[in-house]
Amino acid sequence: MDQKRKLYIETYGCQMNFSDTQIVGSIMTDHDFETTGNIAEADLIFVNTCSIRDNAEKRVRARLQEFKRYKKQKPGLIIGVLGCMAERLKEQLISEEKMVDVIVGPDAYRDLPRLLNIAEGGQKAINVILSADETYADINPVRPDSNGVSAFISIMRGCENFCSYCVVPYTRGRERSRDPQTIVKEAEDLFSQGYREVTLLGQNVNSYKWDDGTGFAKLLERVALVNPLLRVRFATSHPKDLTDELLHTMAAHPNICRSIHLPVQSGSDRILKLMNRKYDSSWYRQRIEAIRRILPGCAISTDIITGFCSETEQDHQETLEMMKWAAYDYAFMFKYSERPDTLAHKKYKDDVPEAVKGTRLQEIIDLQQELSFRSNHADIGRTFEVLAESLSRKSGKELSGRNSQNKVVVFPRENYKPGDYVRVRVTACTPATLKGEAVAE
Ligand code: SAH
Ligand code: SF4
Ligand code: F3S
To answer: What angle do CA 417, 422, 423 make, to 5 degrees?
Structure first.
């Protein structure tokens, strides 16, 4: 009875982290583990962690406490912390959280089998070395939780923008791009397995570059040419680097989705400068105007941080003004959370009271709710091509998918199935979803 040992992985944080979990899954299945969704039967528990805000770390720490219980029941159980928290806290995490056996930073996943050997011998094992060139380009991700329709492809790692509030440059290290051949090959393989959508991932995809001169626009085009039936998305674009060339490439390929995530962070020039975002509000507006001109009908979403160091009511009003002007279709909105050792932590005071951050965040959320509803309402009566992804959660009688603008569209299932492109006429909406029915044609 030589049963394979079982690995359970839980993932927090951004899409890059979810993509990394698939790389870890691949490395571990090559080393005689199989993944399980049932934590109770695991021989090995990994948590792939995020450090972006304090509450992301708190959630992981609370989860680690719960894992103690499994360790009591199964003394040989090994617990590993992966990802950004592992990288940020290093051995400190082992001394603070005694149940942790293995600590592995985002560039050290190839070393996992060796680290596990050490842990199985009863010692703590750690590797948090960051790399200048690791991209895991040759590793074929294992996608156990996939819907079989839509997949992520990592195209680069790291970040060197050093926005003053952000921990990512410290947890993910130097920016590096992955060989375009391997990216295109992965997209081709996914298409032949039945996938119909890929999302190219990086912290700042616009600065993708390879030695043969391939920049992001060129890479995007090569992936779009894999097949007209393969939808291509990407995230995230930094406003300072969003070029007209990229927008023209998108315009030339209908299968590159009409949706751009362009994090603004703040509408105030003074705050943008303190954030070290390297653009001001007029540059940002002029980038939005370029999108509207070159890609009419393109959806625009954003990230906003409220309550950054020294933010005044006036700065806050400028953020609300920017939101109204840009009329975002969707937004992720956060209270500023000071991260140890970042530039902002060293140079500025986290001086906006928690209660004020709370009020401002609520105003931002309320406004976005209104903007999202207005954007969705304007779609009523329109017909979109929807890529069906899964049976709708609420009832098995409906399919759920997204249109090119990345809006979720729910419609009666009829004889359609995940992976189908369906023309759907929108008949109703909520702030979060469109509802409609399939139309012939
Ligand atoms: N690389 C991407 C975003 C990565 S993090 C980009 O630059 O657009 C995702 C979002 O988290 C950021 O856009 C920002 O809005 C938010 N964020 C990052 N650090 C934060 C912090 N210290 N406090 C609150 N929000 C933060
Ligand atoms: Fe963080 Fe800025 Fe890099 Fe985004 S671009 S990951 S916000 S440092
Ligand atoms: Fe979090 Fe690391 Fe991503 S800090 S947002 S998991 S890069």
So the answer is: 160
